Amino acid sequence: MLVSVLSLKGAPGVTTFAVALAARWPGPSRALVVEAAPSGGDLALRFSLASTPGLVSLAAAARRGGDADLVWQHTQELRGGLRVVAAPPDAEQTRAALAALAQHPASGLELLRQAANQPGVVVIVDCGRVDPGSPGVPIARSCDAMVLLSRAHADDLAHLPRRLPTVARWTPNPVFLLVGPGYSEAEVARELGVQPLGRVPHDVRGAAVLCGRPAARRWGPARSALGQFAQKVAGELAARQTPTAPEPPQLHTPIPALQMVPGVPPAAVSPNGVRPAPFTGGQKP
């Protein structure tokens, strides 16, 4: 499954929630986070990762083609075992790498799709703030599901009405989440016509762990309010991925509904689909 996490304005914690979503994705799936924010990556600095492998090396290798395993070859491991494709902090390098992936869809974006289509794999793409014309748009538009984050203040929400209908059509499974204090979920739903799935909790210690900062003993995503909320969202998205069972074939052709005939009162329909003619007087046969 390929999932994008993004915002349309500001920085409401997209990277942190993308990591939380991947860390709490229901098992036994393997989760992978790909940084694709045009403003540059944060994970390398937060977790003291090497400059390579990562998004830049993946974009360079993708020009020569490859398969789903190529994506995994350009990952690094965070504490706890989560694999990530980290983007460089420099925005120009990141945008160049994203442009290279989008320029060769068959060997670039298709690699992410192939990785996400592997059995038991979910790829979470941190698209950051997505503006019109952003190099992250092609990735977001190719995802199976999208998680849109927005702060709940008036100035943040004011940017959504015109863009929400367009962005919602990028994927069959859009999810809208509020972040931080502000308008209630009911007020936002009434004004925007879109019901938020929930509000990301303000969890300083949980966010610190997901940002690579030292945690208190036995404190991790599973014990934090942020991690538990991310698990709820991950479960919702994973359930949408599960294919529904096909309907059993009909053994008999259904009997067509009979239309009302003027002057003929309703009567029972026999098993062969014929309704007896009404008795209109005289002697019954």
Automatic annotation (TrEMBL):
Highest taxon listed in the record's lineage: Bacteria
Record InterPro entries: P-loop_NTPase
Region (Disordered): 242-285
Protein name listed in UniProt: Chromosome partitioning protein
